Amino acid sequence: xxxxxxxxxxxxxxxxxxxxxxxxxxxxxxxxxxxxxxxxxxxxxxxxxxxxxxxxxxxxxxxxxxxxxxxxxxxxxxxxxxxxxxxxxxxxxxxxxxxxxxxxxxxxxxxxxxxxxxxxxxxxxxxxxxxxxxxxxxxxxxxxxxxxxxxxxxxxxxxxxxxxxxxxxxxxxxxxxxxxxxxxxxxxxxxxxxxxxxxxxxxxxxxxxxxxxxxxxxxxxxxxxxxxxxxxxxxxxxxxxxxxxxxxxxxxxxxxxxxxxxxxxxxxxxxxxxxxxxxxxxxxxxxxxxxxxxxxxxxxxxxxxxxxxxxxxxxxxxxxxxxxxxxxxxxxxxxxxxxxxxxxxxxxxxxxxxxxxxxxxxxxxxxxxxxxxxxxxxxxxxxxxxxxxxxxxxxxxxxxxxxxxxxxxxxxxxxxxxxxxxxxxxxxxxxxxxxxxxxxxxxxxxxxxxxxxxxxxxxxxxxxxxxxxxxxxxxxxxxxxxxxxxxxxxxxxxxxxxxxxxxxxxx
Length: 507
Fold this sequence. Notes:
This protein is mainly beta and 507 residues long. 7% of the residues lie in helices and 53% in strands.
């Protein structure tokens, strides 16, 4: 059924009021007109292809069956900073005697969640040197990172320390650090401090040196990245099925599936706990109810790994999720890094490291409906001035003849709202009956329905005084919604709608 067509029909009824003759009632006050006349408003055939012509989410199977497919290649994304993160570092503090030529010190890189890095390449960051010099002259030191280089050149920096406290900052972008101390440990830092100028110091005199790594961003990492949670960025998307945008609930698909496609070049086991909620036009919420998803990642640097997880009615709440007829889907959640802990296999990530989670929603229109509700408001009503003379309309009759090939029963309720938006009255119609179906759920032909609804008295007046009409259509598949049917593109519905009006006014 094409809901908007019914809207057109009802609006045609409204426009009928403009056809009443414009009569000077003062000139002929002793005459009376009580005739009955009818106007055909609609005589049309509507096919499902007409309804879906503008909706690109619908596809047609080889047998003519319909399905809705929604795809997004990168619904959720993670980058290198989500997996390999270095926290703020504590200063490495030492006293440098000025009467010896050099000094070696070592320390450990601070990490989070028990991470054990073996190799790091720094994408960006600084190294800060603070010197407290209590002597009477300037001191010059050279600091060498024993296990670090940039493009093969050992990292070394000269630090000039005048009298007092001074700080020198240098960039460490591109610094490669072997934190394994030649394969024996992890998170290892090592420095040589050479005294280039002792400022004329006496034996036993020294300066205090503080070395601090600041705002380090990882460009490449190998090791164990720890067991911790990373947040899935919260977001939403519109399902965008225009043919369903005004439905509220009650659409039960027989075999809907959701496929999550995870593509990653990050060597890291990750457990994804994704929360996905659907919200319909009445703001009713239904959760998809996904089980945890396990991603192992590639085994070798440079490789990509793709994991496809198909979620169906046996592993989720997808049937009720779709029955809620969502038009907005919210997602959030978290990923748990290394859910099995440290296994002995190194994690790795490179500068272009990423993980993308795509979504494919496949909804074959093999379904049943139980009280599937469609609602639409009809506004901007124009009764052509008849509202002021509602007493001349003695009777209005809506006449329907419908030949329906769809396997749906339809009932219609039309609510009248006045200018204060107060519900004043309503009309109920058994709009049409479902076509019969065969054992495969396919329609076997047309079901013909004849229906009349007579409006009299105050109901006519309340209709003509309405500023808004709310149309509620309730759909059920064959056998009161207990039969699963398949929707095919060649289904159509033939509609004839007319109005009979009996007028009673003095001429």
